TrEMBL record:
<feature type="compositionally biased region" description="Gly residues">
    <location>
        <begin position="27"/>
        <end position="39"/>
    </location>
</feature>
<keyword id="KW-0496">Mitochondrion</keyword>
<protein>
    <recommendedName>
        <fullName>ATPase inhibitor, mitochondrial</fullName>
    </recommendedName>
</protein>
<keyword id="KW-0809">Transit peptide</keyword>
<keyword id="KW-0175">Coiled coil</keyword>
<dbReference type="GO" id="GO:0042030">
    <property type="term" value="F:ATPase inhibitor activity"/>
</dbReference>
<dbReference type="GO" id="GO:0005739">
    <property type="term" value="C:mitochondrion"/>
</dbReference>
<feature type="region of interest" description="Disordered">
    <location>
        <begin position="24"/>
        <end position="57"/>
    </location>
</feature>
<comment type="similarity">
    <text>Belongs to the ATPase inhibitor family.</text>
</comment>
<feature type="region of interest" description="Disordered">
    <location>
        <begin position="70"/>
        <end position="107"/>
    </location>
</feature>
<comment type="function">
    <text>Endogenous F(1)F(o)-ATPase inhibitor limiting ATP depletion when the mitochondrial membrane potential falls below a threshold and the F(1)F(o)-ATP synthase starts hydrolyzing ATP to pump protons out of the mitochondrial matrix. Required to avoid the consumption of cellular ATP when the F(1)F(o)-ATP synthase enzyme acts as an ATP hydrolase. Indirectly acts as a regulator of heme synthesis in erythroid tissues: regulates heme synthesis by modulating the mitochondrial pH and redox potential, allowing FECH to efficiently catalyze the incorporation of iron into protoporphyrin IX to produce heme.</text>
</comment>
<feature type="compositionally biased region" description="Basic and acidic residues">
    <location>
        <begin position="74"/>
        <end position="95"/>
    </location>
</feature>
<dbReference type="Pfam" id="PF04568">
    <property type="entry name" value="IATP"/>
</dbReference>
<dbReference type="InterPro" id="IPR007648">
    <property type="entry name" value="ATPase_inhibitor_mt"/>
</dbReference>
<comment type="subunit">
    <text>Homodimer; represents the active form and is present at a pH value below 6.5. Homotetramer; represents the inactive form and is present at a pH value above 7.0.</text>
</comment>
<feature type="compositionally biased region" description="Basic residues">
    <location>
        <begin position="96"/>
        <end position="107"/>
    </location>
</feature>
Length: 107
């Protein structure tokens, strides 16, 4: 995701991610440092907590991939739209040039 952003925004996002990940503690090892418990299973820790943490990470990673794919598709559609607009405008330019040629020819 960060490679799509401008460098200044990219550094801000990565620093925010690092800061928020520091508050989590070790995933699946009970309550994090951020004050939230994360649910009774994660609070208890152990293998169930680690499994739930891993499933949550997979879920969010999948969601992020879906969002990036949707964003990429949106940009592709925008590109196609703008290409069609360029072609339409070029036809308009050619039409106007033809009118100018006709006016010069009539003089």
């Amino acid at each position: 995701m960060a490679r799509f952003l401008r460098p200044s925004i990219r550094t801000f996002v990565t620093s925010q991610l690092r800061m928020s990940s520091d508050q989590l503690g070790e995933l699946g090892k009970g309550a994090g440092k951020g004050g939230g418990a994360g649910g009774s299973i994660r609070e208890a820790g152990g293998s169930m907590g680690r499994k739930q943490a891993a499933e949550e990470e997979m879920y969010f990673k999948r969601k992020e991939q879906e969002q990036l794919a949707a964003l990429k598709q949106h940009h592709q559609e925008e590109i196609e739209h703008h290409k069609k607009e360029i072609e339409r405008m070029q036809r308009e330019i050619d039409r106007h040039k033809g009118k100018i040629r006709k006016l010069k020819h009539d003089d």
